[in-house]
Amino acid sequence: GAGVSQSPSNKVTEKGKDVELRCDPISGHTALYWYRQSLGQGLEFLIYFQGNSAPDKSGLPSDRFSAERTGGSVSTLTIQRTQQEDSAVYLCASSLIHNEQFFGPGTRLTVL
Amino acid sequence: GDSVTQMEGPVTLSEEAFLTINCTYTATGYPSLFWYVQYPGEGLQLLLKATKADDKGSNKGFEATYRKETTSFHLEKGSVQVSDSAVYFCALSSSNTGNQFYFGTGTSLTVIP
């Protein structure tokens, strides 16, 4: 079946512009996660959605970052007024509760 | 809070050498434990998992045993291959934390012929 998909696969933007990154989780997965992975670094947790509960936003690095999940399915991560330090690969994952996460291929964001 | 600590890399081994990557955890309750692998240029994928104490996860010749007494989940392989070169991440998930996942910082493994 279809896995987690993310779009775009690559995004190049200019400093100060806003960007939107999309994640389509596996159908039926109630949990959705966003992470950031900088070059050669580990995973940095950003935000977590579980069903209809309020999202865990504790990992968002600043108020320029926000995310929503519509209808319990697709999620969009928005970065406003991008900075060069936002350059990274943004990973989305989904899971059934109490099960392993399935990761998407990521969106590589480059801020010039 | 819950956390995972894994051995820092990078690790370089010769082909057919024995591999151990240490992982210890801190958690309330009874977490599930995972090893994920990220091959060069690819996304993360699950390598193996264990959901309760004394369980052994295994896949592709890799093994890890959930040790509650030592709060560990060390990854082992008896004979590594060049194709095992990747970054390995230990992770835990606990219902006590709303099924949130906690990842280690990753350990880079390079296997040389």
Quick take:
The complex is a heterodimer of chains A (112) and B (113). By secondary structure, chain A is mainly beta. Chain A contains no helices and 10 strands.
Task: Considering the chains and any ligands shown, give keywords for the structure.
heterodimer, A: about 110 residues, mainly beta, 6-stranded mixed sheet, 4-stranded antiparallel sheet, about 45% strand, B: about 110 residues, 12 strands
What's the number of extended β-strand segments of chain B? Answer: 12
Write down the secondary-structure element order of chain B: EEEEEEEEEEEE
Helix/sheet category of chain A: mainly beta
- What multimeric state do the chains show? heterodimer
Alpha plus pi helix count of chain B: 0
Low-confidence stretches of chain B: none
Mean pLDDT of chain A: 92
Shape by Cα distribution of chain B:
globular
Task: Quickly give the structural class of chain B.
Answer: mainly beta
Cα end-to-end separation of chain B: 41 Å
| Largest β-sheet summary of chain B | 6 strands, mixed
State the share of residues found in helices of chain A, binned by percent: under 10%
Strand content of chain B: over 45%
Instruction: Give the fraction of residues assigned to helices of chain B.
Output: under 10%
Our count of helices of chain A gives: 0
Percentage of residues in DSSP E strands of chain A: over 45%
Shape annotation of chain A = globular
Please name the two chains that share the biggest interface, counting residues whose Cβ lies under 8 Å from a Cβ on the partner chain.
Answer: A-B, 23 and 20 residues
Low-confidence segments of chain A, given as residue ranges, are none
Radius of gyration of chain A: 13 Å
Can you give the mean pLDDT of chain B? 92
